[in-house]
Amino acid sequence: MAELATPQFWLAIGAIVFVNILLSGDNAVVIALACHNLPPRSRRQGIFWGVLGAIVLRIVLTLFVMSLLVDPWLKLVGAALLLLIGVRLIADEASGPRQVKASNRLLAAVGTILVADIVMSLDNIMAVAAAAKGNVWLIVFGLAISIPIVVVGSQVIVPLLARFPLLVYAGGGMLGYIGGEMALDDPVIRPWIAAHAIGLVPIAPIVGFVAVVATGLYLVRQRQAAGGR
Fold it and tell me: Which of 85, 105, 136, 87 is closest to 38 using CA atoms?
């Protein structure tokens, strides 16, 4: 492959690695947030199935990546889902552990991981495809490099969440931040934003962060107030 000797090829690889460090790290946070309340054995199973699901989803979504790059409404729907997931994670954490069968909790954790990975992997794969400029080998490389990032990242973050519960609030807010960015990048509204409201671009992620944390805290207080009656 003569293109291996070109600087453009290696610049694209560098861009893909950088994108995956950022976006696959977000997937690792979701896996950690969803699994950290599980018992140790169930936690390992949740991480395993969540990571496996993330890998399979990325492979499947890669088959449609070129059409996803221009599909309207996709990022708006994804942004809404990320906001909802962030609120749910904060509310569930702060409400304390519940007496639920481990098997049900494991399935719920894996379900949360898969829903979040569907949304976040779309963003990841679209970013990788953009950096690869349609080069199949570069896209495959991007997927390959994202797998160890997700696996290692989720294993490292889980113990940190158990030791520092406030990180859950930061993680939920981060999903809101990403959702705010994603919403403004949807093809349906991107031209209008660029022409009339370019100032919203740096503000929307912050609004998403604050909205998720504030809503999550509100739901926690409502639940605690109801439990104290």
Answer: 105
Q: Give every CB contact of residue 26 below 8 A, 6+ residues apart in sequence.
A: 120, 174, 175, 178
Write down the mean pLDDT value for the chain: 75
What is the rounded distance in angstroms from the CA atom of residue 206 to the CA atom of residue 228? 33
pTM of the model: 0.64
Task: Give residue-wise pLDDT tens across range 29-51.
Answer: 777 777 877 887 787 788 788 77
Q: Which of 142-151, 161-170, 218-227 has the lowest mean pLDDT?
A: 142-151
68-73: long-range pairs with CB below 8 Å, 24+: 68/122, 68/125, 68/126, 68/129, 69/126, 69/129, 69/130, 70/187, 71/187, 72/186, 72/187, 72/188, 73/186, 73/188
Whether 138 and 1 have beta carbons less than 8 Å apart is answered as: no
Q: How confident is the model at residue 103 (pLDDT cuts 50, 70, 90)?
A: very low
Crossing angle of helices 40-62 and 102-132, in 10° steps, is 30
Which residue pairs, CB below 8 angstroms and at least 24 apart, start in 34-38? 34/89, 34/109, 34/110, 34/112, 34/113, 34/116, 35/109, 35/113, 35/154, 35/158, 36/158, 36/161, 36/162, 36/168, 37/92, 37/93, 37/97, 37/105, 38/102, 38/105, 38/106, 38/109
